[in-house]
Amino acid sequence: MNDKKFYVSTPIYYVNDKPHIGHAYTTILADVLARYHRRLNVPTFFLTGTDEHGQKVQKAAEEHHMTPQEQCDSTVVRFQELWKKLDISNDDFIRTTNPNHQRVVREILQDLYDRDLIYKAEYEGHYCVPCERFFTGKDLEEGELCPECHRPTARIMESNYFFRMSNYQQWLIDYIETHPGFIQPAFRANETLGFLKQPLGDLCISRPKSRLAWGIELPFDADYVCYVWFDALINYISGIGYRTDEAKFRQWWPVSYHLIGKDILTTHTVYWPTMLKAIGLEMPQAIFAHGWWLTGREKMSKSRGNVVNPMAMCDKYGVDAFRYFLLAEMPLGQDASFTEDAFVGRYNSDLANDLGNLLSRVVKMTLRQTDGVIPAPEAYGDDEKELVAEIDQAVAELPRLLDEMKLNRGLETVMQAVRAGNRYLEKTAPWSLAKKGETGKLHTVLYCSAELLRKAGTLLHPVMPHKMTELLTALGLSGEAAANPAIAALKNGENVLSGKKMRDSGALFLRIQPAVPEVPAASAPTEKTSAAPAKASAPARSEAPAPVGVITIDEFFRTQLKTARVLTAERVKGADKLLRLQIEVGEETRQLVAGVAQYYTPEQMVGKTIVIVANLKPAKIRGIESQGMLLAAKHDGALKLVTVDGDMPSGVTIG
Ligand code: MSP
């Protein structure tokens, strides 16, 4: 990738309907790439907008008893409002009804017509209204269905204008074959090459006004308007000054990435390159086609009523968590499944348990031990070196993974470092260091954990700008260092945190209690089940009375189950069944009296991760206070502790 500048575009969206998750995803992806490049000090331009001409918009206007322009003006606002809500940092927003864009389209049409690259001919073909495309008889499925959307096509015969696309077939094949990064992922390039195995026809670029009036009038024939795709693709150059601001255009063209969905591959990898070639412009550096979001395993569609509503998801769970989920969940170029269960699962594990928990432990410990002032570290031991290596790997890897469009993998490297941070706290046990008076080591642990969070927060900032500013502010940073942290500076490794005062601003990500599946499992807020702007933690309620002996989910969640680690264990004098345990629950140390002495020796207990009821009223057992209760299974004279399957820090909520 050319590292001197970064220009990224999204498709321009049709204004026949309100935005959905597919629109939100591409726009968030473009936003995150733009933000990363800005943080890496690469001059960046991010363009998005709306596609306002054509049959779809005209039809929607008729249905709503509006003029097409009124339809555009009322729907464009919904996109602009959503982008505002989603913190989209586009540098410009292009509308194809904008006079400047229309002028550029007409100039290009005239130029191609003058050079005989556009000509008039009789045309007979099969037209698909929803796709706004002509197909030849051999393209059709079952003799009459559109090969793209599988709906019936209409047979149409009329005079039209054609762009000599066929001139460029061999040139395009050669270009794709000699430029491996041009169409990404690589399997999509093969798809286009497969398409180009058939003879490439010329492209019909006009519509008679008698059939469709809503479009840009052809400069050389007032009876016709321009085909909506020919008009729309030109936004990528008219939006950066082509034919109006040459200096600006030269600064940004060629585009670094056209981000598109897999369904608009042919228009972007066949029509657009041949149009650019005819105009005489450089090719895009890369066209990246992402997969589709499915609802569970089903295609999203209005008729099924399963289209996920991005506004409702943000109202319910917060913008940053929604942005994080979409990027972390969709692998390079593949389809991904959206369910609210998957959302809640990833939110709780990555954001609440790993990242939020680490921040809260580090802030609380520092407030308690050094009055919130981040200390200077002493010499690093092996644990610190390992920790630094883990986060520095994320610092080094992330730009490479971004260049390869493996955003989900990039985020995973950061989360791995965050998990290493939680393990580091378990291992170094700073609360015990404080008790033992090992101040030097304690300071090193506090500093290193804070530094890890600073780097992770900076790396994650483009994905979760608000939450990561909150995190950096909690670490005592302010101004640009918190609002616009520089990724490029992370490599310098200087100590910017020592002496800063931490602030406890509460939980960064409140844990979400999974809702009871009253309605079919995995229901995300869709058009039919618009989400109530509920608090993240409020579980769904069932109105029907519970059968005797059955508790509600609310009742269950009143019991706080947590993981805990046994630090010390000793027998209680005069009570052969009891052990007195000191346990670590997150950064807190508690005392527990447990009736397990006949099954476990004190030595066997130390180091174990157990499960406790953390909100049990403290009680005195044989005069010793017990702050909670451990869980165990007892059967046939045997007793086994309840524990978790694998490595887990202490203090983690179970449920
Ligand atoms: N107006 C054209 C694009 C012109 S670009 C010069 C268009 N608009 S659209 O509004 O119908 O779709 C825009 C994008 O949304 C496409 O990239 C499409 O792939 C994407 N998505 C629509 N549904 C989607 C999902 N369910 N999942 C992911 N993206 C999908 O096409």
Key phrases:
6-stranded antiparallel sheet; 7-stranded parallel sheet; 21 helices; binds 5'-O-[(L-methionyl)-sulphamoyl]adenosine; alpha/beta
Helices and strands in order:
Layout: E1 6-9, E2 13-14, H1 21-39, E3 44-51, H2 55-63, H3 68-85, E4 92-95, H4 99-114, E5 118-128, E6 133-135, E7 154-163, H5 169-178, E8 183-184, H6 186-195, E9 203-204, E10 206-208, E11 217-218, E12 221-226, H7 228-233, H8 235-238, H9 246-252, E13 257-261, H10 265-279, E14 287-290, E15 293-295, E16 298-299, H11 310-317, H12 319-329, E17 336-338, H13 340-370, H14 382-403, H15 407-428, H16 430-436, H17 439-460, H18 465-474, H19 480-483, H20 553-557, E18 561-572, E19 575-585, E20 588-594, H21 602-605, E21 609-613, E22 619-621, E23 624-626, E24 629-630, E25 632-635, E26 638-641, E27 653-654
Parallel strand pairs: 1-3, 1-13, 2-3, 3-4, 8-14, 13-14, 15-17
Antiparallel strand pairs: 5-6, 5-7, 7-9, 10-12, 11-12, 15-16, 18-19, 18-21, 18-27, 19-20, 21-24, 22-23, 25-26
Helix pairs in contact: 2-3, 6-10, 11-12, 13-15, 13-17, 14-15, 14-17, 15-17, 16-17, 17-18
5'-O-[(L-methionyl)-sulphamoyl]adenosine binds at residues 11-14, 22-23, 25-26, 51, 232-233, 235, 260-261, 263-264, 292-293, 300.
